Predict the structure.
Amino acid sequence: MSIAPAPDRFIFSHRHLLGIEGLSATEISGLLDLADEAAELNRQVSKKQDTLRGRTQINLFFEASTRTQSSFELAGKRLGADVMNMSVGSSSIKKGETVIDTAMTLNAMRPDLLVVRHHSAGAVELLSQKVSCSVINAGDGSHEHPTQALLDALTIRRNKGKIGGLTVVICGDVLHSRVARSNIILLNALGARVRVVAPATLLPPFAERLGAEVYTSMEKGLEGADIIMMLRLQLERMSGSYVPSVREYFHFFGLDHEKLKLAKPDALVMHPGPMNRGVEIDSAVADDNRSVISEQVEMGVAVRMAVLTALSQHLPNQ
Amino acid sequence: MSKPPKARIAKRKKKKFGSKPGDKIALVNARLLDPGSGLDEHGGLTIRKGRIADMGPQLAESGPENFETIDCGGHALMPGLIDMLVYTGEPGFEHQEPLATASRAAAVGGVTTIVCMPDTNPVIDDAALVDFIQRRARDTAVVHVRPMAAATRGLEGKEMTEIGLLQEAGAVAFTNGTSSITNARVMRRLLAYATDFDALIVHNTEEPELAASGVMNEGEISSRLGLPGIPDSAEAIMLQRDLELVRATGARYHAAQISTAASLDIIRRARADGIDVTCGVSINHLTLNENDIGPYRTFFKMRPPLRREEDRQALVAGLAAGEIDVIVSGHNPKDADVKRRPFAEAEDGAIGLETLFSAALTLYHNKEVELTTLLRAFTSTPARLLGLKSGKLEVGARADLALADFEAPWIVDPDRLQSKSKNTPFDERQMQGRVLRTVVNGNTVFTLGAGT
């Protein structure tokens, strides 16, 4: 069994995956189909493929990450690539090395695939202009996190059988969330109805123009929801700068069983992780049978395998 | 007893300031344009000892005998431009732009006077430094360079500088550079003190706490790009505060660069209220908007940030109506090292001296602003505000002139720009109209096709 795509079936026309923006609905669905196959494969005893045999994949993380980095690492290894992880701490940035310098250095080592996370919006795109390999955005500032949106979509599709027509509610720190931005674009492209729910201080300016209905009340926003995506609220934003306190935030915007009742009975609860239990999500809800948070992690590997496979179409000598 | 020999040598060797002024030159067959007086006629002018000696239709065909005669080919001869807001890198950032290259860029753009900002290292907050700028300009620059001095020491916004001494040394106005004076008490005293010297205070208005980490205009585009924004209100609040203090002190105040429709409204209301205030706008904010940033193009990152298209249109309308007094280039040279970075980490600034005039002509070609109104905004009005003896075509005025073809098409090529830094937002842009010749003190400092 192989997940290498038959060229007549799915052609991915991009050299890089920098964001969901710019992908067509067909391309998104194609990636999800590919990921579905990878998901099945990942449940087999023998998971190793040779799609990327002989290829080098470098995971370049300018921002600490455990789950995304290991997910990409596993995806690359299962496809047969040699995977190297590089964490560029803030120290080497302080030494004056720019993102372009780092990119040029790594490029000289001739990788085939570069997975990049950076704390600054647009940094991954900038880097992609300077290298000759394929670049995957693993999160750039508050801009995009395309593989997260794809794995969310895959999780939804596998549970609901579709995405179009569903009401998806994204709750929490939408302002700083690249996950929210990528999801809003993707869900709109596939015909879902998107709502965002957050206090005014955590909503991006003109949020309504991003393709989402805007709610500042959790109760109203959750009404009739098929999917509830909770976003992580960073600790430093909870003590008076964006919201007054953890307990006030949890009271109004934390997802507990009481609020969950307002959604459809078969609504799914999602979270990109890592969770702050008792801040944006109640432990009981996180561990509820409607929570698909673990499945999201599983689909993460599958989606990243799909993306790596799709981009491998454009690697030299292919 | 003999005098110390060194002093005698020094006295004997004392050099004459600047180059010799142009003399016995006739510029004929020109469209004479004087925005200040509204003059627009076919004619010519003569130059004696760096000044305009004669002008009018009688010189349309030929100049007096023994004069070097230059045929202007019927093109527009107007006062050289005065650019009231230019950042240079001298002293301290010569790798980005010394006065010499800034002045050559100015010459190509028809700018005969640049007013340089005090945001250098060291900051121009001392009479000796004002003197330094003027001497360096005399020795290295091909156009006039007039320093605008810091209004507070080190541009820190805390203690006012020696306004009187700086003015005597040659500072044409006072500013806090790119930053605002946030302390209202300091600002109030500064404005009050400046009135004693009739000094002009030029202020960039941005409330720093509201602008905070913002890197572009706050709006739909910033939300899409995931970049922190700078709201309109950051500019409006500081401007409104200033105008209240101007009302209280009667100071001469000029808002250095407004960028929003809201700010223009504030200026309008203040004037209706009897407050005497002037304002400037940069060519970038008249011809570009936030959409130009596109996929994180850092050459469009500047302060104030490029705003919405609605703001740009309001500013153009304000200029056409005479509500905006001055157009500046906001010339701010930054090298590739500080620009080729992720958007939020790149420095602010765009160069503009060489493209100022051509870009401004867009507004004339689009029939958005009358020619005279447009030209006044970088000739007679800044001359009046800064007390300069140029910016006009008039017998006796200094022969600082620009000859321009309003129609000539050209494409901006960064490699051919004179500025040492190439951060132009007009990269590859098609322009209509350009400067053919620039004259400073009667001397030609630039001719198109002949280099500088």
